[in-house]
Each structure stands twice: as structure tokens, then as C-alpha cells.
Fold:
Amino acid sequence: MAKRAAPPRPRKTARKAKSAAAPAATRKAAARKAPALAKRAPAKRAAPKPAAPKRTPAKAAAPKRAASKPAAPKRAAAKRAAPRKPAPAKRAAAPKRVRAAAPQRFTVSHLREDDFQPNGLRAYALYRDLGIADATGGLAQAHVIRMVPPVTDEVRQRHLHNVDLQLVYVLKGWMKNEFEGYGVQMMEQGSCWLQPPGIKHTVLDYSDDLEVLELIIPADFETLPAD
Structure:
């Protein structure tokens, strides 16, 4: 009776069949994955190829920058043409007067009423000489003028001065003048004006206390009547 227990052996054959079937299944799965891997690999290798055309436009842009270089000679030509303009004649004439002037010395003049004397250009005025003519060797003249009232026809005579420079500053009072080309001008305390050389002018009226400072170059000049 003990020898009849042998039938359970077929179970081992079933296990062997399963183990034999397993490699076949793995082979099929591997076969399925192989096409997918093959498709992915070409995609990675093809990615760098589109980058090559991007570099070619940069090389083509280089000639455009070189085309802008020819504009430089035009600027250089403009700079070279600038020095051809002639220098003003006035600047060249200025140093000649400075070289011809005599050496200057220091001088000072303090206010004293006794210094106002009727020894100037106009008989109807008192002059205080500031000593500038002697200190500059005749280069310039400066004085304070007090006009004496009343205003007469002698005062109103039209005239001109042959000078290089004539500057007047009102220290006190007021003065009404007429200048050729500029009409009537009212000068008050603090007013300052420059009379161009040879300009025709007329003293029309002034206050009783008029006092002006006058600077003239050169110290010796000519005064002429004007029609």
C-alpha cells in the first residue's frame, strides 16, 4: 500500500514549464522595447543639426558692419577744413598797442575839493585829474568832471572825439545826451556808457549836481565840431 503515493510528481513538471515559459515572455517584452529605443535614439542625435544654420547668419552680418567704416573719412575731411577760416583782424592788432605803450607806474589819488580845477576841455566844467596820464606815459586819461550850470548853447554844440576808447560813468545827478544812430539817452546815477570813436553827440541837459567819471584812450585826443 505504501508504493501508491507516487502521483504527486507531475507538480514539478508544471514548475519547469513555467520557468521555460518565462524566458520566452522576457524575449517578447525586450522585442517590444527595442523599437521604442530605436526611435528615441535618432531624435537625440538629430537635435544638434538645426543649430548649424543659426551660426551662418552671424557670419553674413559681418560685411554690414564693415560697410559703415567708409563714413569715417567724411568726418576727417570736415575737421581738416576748419583751420582754413581766417583769424579776425582785431585780435592781431591788439598786441601792437600794448607793445608801444610806455612802462606804467603805481599811482593813487584821494579826494580833495581843491583838486577840481577849470583847466579841462570844457569851460563850463571843473576837472579832477586822477594822475593816470602821467602814470601810463600818455596811454590813458581819467578824470572826474563836475558840470557847472546853467546849460547854455555852448554846452549844446554837436561834436565828436577822435579817440580809441571813451567810457563815462555817472557818479551823481543825471545827464541827457543825444547820440548819432541811438537817439536821446537819459543817464542817471550809476549809468555807464561807451562812446564809439568819432560818434557825433550832443549834451542836451544835466542836473546842477552832475558829476561823472571819464576814461579816455589815449590821453591826448582831438575834439572837433560836428554838423
Observations:
- Residues 9 and 98 are 141 Å apart (CA to CA).
- The longest helix spans residues 10-46.
- Confidence is low (pLDDT under 50) at residues 57-63, 91-95.
